[in-house]
């Protein structure tokens, strides 16, 4: 979707929004899949409610992009504009055991910044690619750690009220790859409370997690991490692997030959290829195990 009206472009400038016409989402996502649309980069959180009111009044649909590491986006010209927050600097502010972190901050870099100040707990999250905002929304987790455990409050744009609000952790439920935030809520900033731990000890934990990840996941291929959630008590990766589907392809979308729950873009895969692969693998797992796998990746199909 293209914004060309001089009046709307002027209103965007007034809200300190940077307008990048015709951005390629393939360049902004770890799967390297996605069509084109205008990208609106938000420099000041306080202007977000007014920006969303403006888009609504003008009948312009939007989606929010975080780090682009857990989304599968449709091909071609997209019928919505893409919004993205930019980070103020510094994006991580530490006071004692409290860490204020901006939604646009990189998750891995946040873990190491905190480690250098002797704040640990999040070692398991070190190799999870993406932004803090995405990690909060999905309750990102790995190797026994979930970010939700450390969240004390979240500043969020509430779709229900159209305002920015601060929500305490007691009012948020963090579940496996799911939170109680509404789909249209936007994470802005969070306060984490992290346990004190010597830097060397945190570093040792980080090394162990990095090693485990390197040995089991296709880190140098284009993916969005695990494509399906694990069913209760089960493992999507083990089930898909057990069906001999490593290396199975639809076009250039391929089940990784390292980890069967990672679907990779092995060339110039389209969204249609990836959706075709998801559909086929899901139906084979259903036929073999009677289990309907639920997507972990967020799909924006036009
Ligand atoms: N397995 C296979 N074949 C495979 C992959 C896995 O047999 O191709 C087996 C493994 O041997 C193991 C079991 O399946 O016995 C579980 O595998 P793994 O330890 O790799 O963990 P996972 O359940 O597949 C989860 C998360 C990952 C996270 C790892 C490490 C989900 C959907 N996935 O994977 O998160 O990195 O644990 O904690 O919860 C993500 O969210 O995108 C993601 C990659």
Treating each run of at least 4 consecutive H or I residues as one helix, how many helices?
Answer: 7
Shape: globular
| Average pLDDT for all residues | 97
User: Could you give the order of strands across the largest sheet?
Assistant: 6-7-14-10-11
**What's the gyration radius in Å?**
20 Å
Q: How many strands?
A: 19
Taken in chain order, the helices and strands follow as HEEHEEEEEHHEEEEEEEHEHEEEHE
Could you give a short account of the major beta sheet? 5 strands, antiparallel
Structural class: alpha+beta
The amount of beta strand, in percent, is 25-35%
List bound small molecules: uridine-diphosphate-2(N-acetylglucosaminyl) butyric acid
Q: Roughly how many Å apart are the termini?
A: 11 Å
What would you note in describing this structure?
The chain has 302 residues and is α+β, with helices and mostly antiparallel strands. The protein has 7 helices and 19 strands. Strands 6-7-14-10-11 form a 5-stranded antiparallel beta sheet, with helices on one face. It has a 4-stranded mixed beta sheet with strand order 1-2-5-3, covered by helices on one side. Strands 15-18-17-16 form a 4-stranded antiparallel beta sheet. A hairpin with a 4-residue loop joins strand 10 and strand 11. It is globular, with a radius of gyration of 20 Å. The N and C termini lie close together (11 Å). Uridine-diphosphate-2(N-acetylglucosaminyl) butyric acid binds next to strand 15 and helix 6.
What features would you highlight for this structure?
single chain; 302 residues; alpha+beta; 7 helices; 26% helix; binds uridine-diphosphate-2(N-acetylglucosaminyl) butyric acid
């Amino acid at each position: 979707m293209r914004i060309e009206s001089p009046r709307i472009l002027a209103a965007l400038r007034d809200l300190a929004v940077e307008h990048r016409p015709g951005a390629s989402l393939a360049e902004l996502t770890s799967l390297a899949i996605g069509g084109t649309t205008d990208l609106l980069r938000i420099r000041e959180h306080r202007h977000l409610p007014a920006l969303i009111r403006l888009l609504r009044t003008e009948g312009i649909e939007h989606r929010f992009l975080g780090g682009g590491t857990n989304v599968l986006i449709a091909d071609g010209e997209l019928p919505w504009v893409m919004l993205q927050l930019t980070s103020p600097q510094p994006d991580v502010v530490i006071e004692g055991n409290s860490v204020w972190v901006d939604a646009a901050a990189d998750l891995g870099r946040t873990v190491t910044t905190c480690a250098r100040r002797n704040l640990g707990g999040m070692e398991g999250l070190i190799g999870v690619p993406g932004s803090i905002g995405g990690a909060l929304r999905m309750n990102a987790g790995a190797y026994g750690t979930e970010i939700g455990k450390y969240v004390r409050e979240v500043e969020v744009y509430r779709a229900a009220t159209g305002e920015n609000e601060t929500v305490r952790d007691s009012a948020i439920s963090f579940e496996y790859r799911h939170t109680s935030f509404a789909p249209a809520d936007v994470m802005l900033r969070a306060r984490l409370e992290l346990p004190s731990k010597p830097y060397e000890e945190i570093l040792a934990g980080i090394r162990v997690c990095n090693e485990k990840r390197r040995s089991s996941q296709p880190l140098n291929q284009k993916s969005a991490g695990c494509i399906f959630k694990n069913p209760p008590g089960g493992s999507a990766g083990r089930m898909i692997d057990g069906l001999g589907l490593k290396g199975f392809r639809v076009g250039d979308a391929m089940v990784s030959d390292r980890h069967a729950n990672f679907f990779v873009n092995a060339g110039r895969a389209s969204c249609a290829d990836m959706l075709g692969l998801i559909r086929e693998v899901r139906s084979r797992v259903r036929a073999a195990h009677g289990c309907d796998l639920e997507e972990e990746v967020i799909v924006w199909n036009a």
